[in-house]
Amino acid sequence: SSHEHKLNFKKSKEACLSYIQDAMLQKQWRRAAEFLTFYVEALEKDYSREAIGPSEMIWRIGTEILCHHSRSSMKEFNCFMEQMKTLGVKRYLKVCLEHVFHLLCNGQIDEAYQNLSLAESWRFGEQTAIQDKEMKLIQAYRGLLDYYSWSKQKNILLEHGPDGFADLSVEQEMHSCFRKAAVNLKEIIKVPGVWDLFVKCYVDLLEFYGDHNEACQVLNEYAYNSKFPANPNAHVYLYQFLKRQGESKKSLISALKILHDIVPSHELMIDFNTMLQKSKKRKKRRLGLEVIFAVLDYAGWKENVKAWSCLARQVKQIVISEKHLDWIKQEWNSRKDWWPAFHFSRYLAKKNWQENKSLSYEKALVAGILLGKDCKYFKYVSHQGCKAQVKRFRVLKKFVNRHNPVYLRISG
Questions:
Q1: What is the number of structural domains in the chain?
Q2: What is the pTM of this model?
Q3: Residues 229, 192 contacting (CB under 8 angstroms)
Q4: For the stretch 150-168, what's the b/e string if a residue is b when 16 or more beta carbons lie within 10 angstroms of its beta carbon?
Q5: Is 318 contained in some domain?
Q6: The domain containing residue 407 runs over which residues?
């Protein structure tokens, strides 16, 4: 019967897709290609309507196979993509974008630019308005390639100087690329989203031509506009720009404070801690201690000498002055149950001593203050240091022994 035929056809089609998936998962690209051929042939008899149409299946599966197949070539990939563009109007711009990415990954920049230009001129009734986001991406990536051309021309000028007729033509080409790039990059970063690369390129263009106010406005909008998703990089770019412009410490601290709230383990937290420690304001120095403790909560910082040096320096200053011991106590209370095993075990003492004596020194100082003179880490490192007759380890041992009452006050 007709119903039974349709049911059997549907089962065979689903089985074929299952075989394709299995082959792809096992990286059997030839086998996957053979099953895809059968699938395409079968679809010629299929008149059903599905949420994800057959053409999208073919596009996504075919692209993956061609990207990995040992006998695949750029010519075949380009031919396949051109066919996919004609299969579905609704996916036309998405296919164009994927084609462009593949061309760029294979170093075919001119071909990618040409494809973007053709896609930008594409019009198809109401579909043009529906695919507005994809069109903006097309324009943005074209702006990115214009920036790439501008950067090449700029480097030629910087290398050879601005003199001569040849350089004049290069300069004119550079300015032309700047205008085209700036228009498209400016448009895409108005749309809420994560546009890191586009923002960096646009700011680079503005800075080169001395438009620092516009660059600052763009970066502030990208970092602080609530319509944009929370993005640590936005605050990194703003901080780096402010630093290049020689802005005040207050502005730099403000930018890094938000970065600290989002990513307390970020590498810039060392810079943040250093600035806060140098501040004359007690509130900022307190924040500096909080920042460096938070950094060392993460495994990636466990063996970072600079981080331990920052903590050791601030802890030592507080202990000597005997002011603000409550700051250390507050930070230590939430960590005393797990930091000893995480940072200050005897195993780590041996390992750190063998691999990096500077690291073991800084950690031993912190361990001695936080856990007292009987701490396993401190005892092992100070013993090895004294045994090796290294003066600073003898001084370290005396310092911790002298200030052992501080440990009692911190431990409560």
A1: 1
A2: 0.83
A3: yes
A4: bbebbeeeeeeeeeeeeee
A5: yes
A6: 288-411
